[in-house]
Write a structure and sequence with these properties.
The protein folds into two domains: 196 residues, Alpha-Beta Complex (Quinone Oxidoreductase, Chain A, domain 1); 134 residues, Rossmann fold. Helices cover 30% and strands 25% of the residues. The protein contains twelve helices and 16 strands. The strands form three sheets. Strands 3, 5, 6, 7, 8, 15 and 16 form a seven-stranded mixed beta sheet that branches. A six-stranded parallel beta sheet has the order 11-10-9-12-13-14, sandwiched between helices. Strands 2-1-4 form a three-stranded antiparallel beta sheet, with helices on one face. The longest helix is centred in the last third of the chain and has 13 residues. Bound molecules: zinc ion (ZN). The site of zinc ion has 9 residues, from helix 2.
């Protein structure tokens, strides 16, 4: 088969790769129905995250089970499944407490931008649907694998409750789906920080009530204007930079909640600043597996349409164009069809 590799900044190649096979008895092999490019894939693509030589890419996936190892009990060939970007046994003490993305057996998935994928710990990582889903729901089901699951965690970790005031920092696909998630959780006022018109439009569709285009001190002042001069109940940080993290903390009222789900690059927090901000901080790699059954159900009942974040669909062999489009902000998120 052919799969996606990164060789260096801006250098994505779709090339011959060994077809994945069962290597451990708890593995499954999937034939992917769809895969996509993550905002976090842009860090190495932009040369902002070093790689150790040519590296397979892709960690968002859904598809049909082709084969399972001899110790797999719950997942069967022929099922449609979605899995998280982090594998989990769904059984250890960390998993039992809902943090499957830090499972003691965790591995981070890669190599999903390919037609076939090996998934370790299949029973604990994958969630199967009862029936094969209709084709038009595939983009939204794919979204549950990471981008929606991460946006959902952003809202959950920031304790978004009915009637809450919420600021979402970051208008990438995760930020946009954090808006959808906050709306689902009953937030009354959702401020999207966004400078791009197409993203503002989608933010409003997903439930944003206000748009703030300013950043830094000006952005914080605008938010406080909209929030009785005090700040929001919850701020959802969906980027991972120093600027976005401080924006989130400083937009939150004392006693409020800040979540952070963007992979941090160069974030360093000052102790005194944190001390006097007096906010709850909670984040990390989203425990998507915890939310998958619920999110898949919302999609199958057509209560949400997170697949709207895919504004570019390409055949898998044009994956390099997909990266370029996202890097140049011509696309919010690229769906790839094997
Ligand atoms: Zn575990």
């Amino acid at each position: 088969m052919q799969g996606t590799m990164i060789y260096g900044a801006g250098d994505i190649r779709f090339e011959d790769r060994p077809e994945p096979a069962i290597t451990r008895p708890t593995d499954a092999i999937l034939r992917l129905s769809a895969t996509c490019i993550c905002g976090s894939d842009l860090w190495p693509y932009r040369g902002l995250q070093p790689i150790n030589g040519p590296t397979p890419m892709g960690h968002e996936y859904c598809g049909i089970v082709e084969e399972v190892g001899k110790d797999v009990r719950n997942i069967r060939p022929g099922q449609f499944v979605v899995g998280s970007f982090a594998t989990s046994d769904n059984n250890c003490l960390i998993c039992q407490n809902g943090y499957q993305s830090s499972c003691i057996q965790r591995e981070f998935m890669s190599a999903a931008q390919a037609p076939f994928l090996r998934v370790p710990l299949a029973d604990g990582t994958l969630v199967a649907t009862t029936d094969l889903p209709p084709g038009q729901l595939i983009p939204s089901l794919l979204a549950t694998s990471d981008v929606l699951g991460t946006g959902w965690f952003a809202a959950d970790a920031a304790s978004v409750k009915p009637g809450a005031t919420v600021v979402v920092v970051g208008d990438g696909a995760v930020g946009l789906l954090a808006i959808l998630s906050a709306k689902q959780m009953g937030a009354e006022r959702i401020i999207a920080m966004s400078r791009y018109e197409s993203r503002q439009k989608l933010a409003r569709e997903f439930g944003a009530t206000d748009i703030v285009t300013e950043r830094g001190d000006e952005g914080i002042a605008r938010i406080k204007d909209l929030m009785n001069g005090i700040g929001a109940d919850s701020a959802l940080e969906c980027v991972g930079t120093q600027e976005s993290m401080l924006q989130a903390i400083r937009s939150t009222r004392p006693g409020g909640f800040v979540s952070y789900v963007g992979v941090p690059h160069g974030v360093a927090l000052d102790g005194a600043g944190l001390f006097f901000a007096q906010v709850h901080l909670h984040g990390g790699p989203a425990p998507v597996r915890r939310y998958l059954p619920y999110l898949i159900d919302l999609v199958l009942k057509e209560k949400i349409n997170p697949g709207k974040v895919f504004d570019l669909t390409l055949p898998l062999d044009q994956v390099a164009d997909g990266y370029r489009a996202m890097d140049e902000r011509r696309a919010i998120k690229t769906l790839l069809q094997p």
